Amino acid sequence: MKRTILAGALLAAGAVGLLAQPTTAPAAAPAVAKAPAPKSQGEVVALQAWQAAAQSGDSDAVIKSVEDLLAKYPDTEFKDIVLTTEADAYQRKKDWIKAQIYAEQALTANPKSYQASVMLADILSKHTGEHDLDKDDKLSKAEKYAHQTIDLIGAAPKPRPDISDAQWESIKQGFVGQAQDDLGLAAMVRKNWDASVAAFKAAVAADPQPAYSVQMANALLSANKYDEAIAACDKVLAEPNLHPQIKSAAQGIKDAAIKAKGK
Questions:
Q1: Which CATH number fits domain 2-16+39-193: 1.25.40.10, 2.60.40.1120, 3.90.1150.10, 3.20.20.70?
Q2: Which of 4, 48, 106, 241 has its CA at a distance of 20 to 30 angstroms from the CA of residue 68?
Q3: Tens digits of per-residue pLDDT, 65-97?
């Protein structure tokens, strides 16, 4: 997922620079967020172990490094950041319940964490079934977190001064696209096709990923808008170097739209 990779890269890259800073950092420029800082050399060592685990891609190592860090330094200024990486590690292990728990802890630690809020929107929108007894509650939470993400990222300052304005705008649009995609998925479960189409169109407008376009085509198919679904699929299928799974999904939706239109 582009958003997850982007957020992870942003956090990991930020950690490298932050750990190199002195404990008392100079005041940040108004347009840049105040950077968290370690309070002791022992915390630096624990953060370096977490950073190494995050860069290794080993989910179990990330989980252990976060638990070790928080056991020794529960008040670390990096708490929401490391908890978000722990939630992401559980996502990669397909343990959605623990992923949600740690993402919620990250958002509690920092209510302005758009990384945590979009992760919660993503988990709940993707792992709520049509026949779940608590479907409405989970989808309402997914929608709340998605809208929260859009609000938070819109007001968020750049996390680091070395990120250009253009790069930051692209990052922000990536989060908006993911949040809109989650709104579209929630609307699909509710079978609110018009709302789903509108959300996926907003996701594509913010971050024109083929995956979002395929989701939009599927919603158009469900809404019986066959010509629009076919056109959306054709646009995706015309893209070079398309991922085989996305290509297969787009072709399947197009075939289904053509068949339904013929009837």
A1: 1.25.40.10
A2: 4
A3: 999 999 999 999 999 999 999 999 999 999 999
